[in-house]
Amino acid sequence: MPRLQCPRCLRPETHCLCPLIPCLSSRTRVLVLQHPSEVGHALNTARLATMGLENAELRVGEVFEDLQGVLSDPNYRACLLFPGEDASPLAEVSSDLRPMLLIVPDGTWRKARKLLHLNPALADLPRVTLPSNLQSRYRLRKAPMAGALSTIEAIATALDILEAPARFDALLRPFEALIEGQIVAMGEETFQRNHAGGE
């Protein structure tokens, strides 16, 4: 008999995350462009992030036809959260009078680069980056590079910078509960052997 699923967070009803998902407001508008390969991912942190933010949207696809219209909204200054040689630290660009439209690609690094390639309007945007010394809370997967965060961590960190002194830690509660649940499911001994302190 299939397990009943929560229609909102898509988790089994016995592990529903909805009570942990906040409803946070922000000046910054967040648009997550998710590669289709991420939709079925067990954690799907991009979805959790946009569910917890009032001024956020998740779009799934590879080519986004109406992107130019979204990016040209005069009420927002569009920036792409993605590393690059010409990227500026987010803290240095957060003083503009207009709120930011923060575009966040969601996928592996290779898939995220593909999104940029398939959507030239993204490649033309000013790029912003997070501080390089950040540590991911995702204890079940070794980061592909120093400072790499999950999508929900990157969004929460970006909003902490852009909207200081407001804090967005509450956005991470369902993410941390998911990780704890996976650790419990695998057993503490297996976690310690395979993941704890394995840097």
UniProtKB/TrEMBL annotation:
Entry-linked Pfam families: DTW
InterPro entries, alphabetized: DTW (IPR005636), DTWD2/TAPT (IPR039262)
Keywords for this protein: S-adenosyl-L-methionine, Transferase, tRNA processing
Domain of life: Bacteria
Residue intervals of the DTW domain: 2-187
The keyword S-adenosyl-L-methionine appears for this protein: yes
EC assignment: 2.5.1.25
Keyword S-adenosyl-L-methionine among UniProt keywords: yes
Family to which this protein belongs: Belongs to the TDD superfamily. DTWD2 family.
PANTHER family reported for this sequence: TRNA-URIDINE AMINOCARBOXYPROPYLTRANSFERASE 2
Protein name: tRNA-uridine aminocarboxypropyltransferase
Record organism: Metapseudomonas boanensis
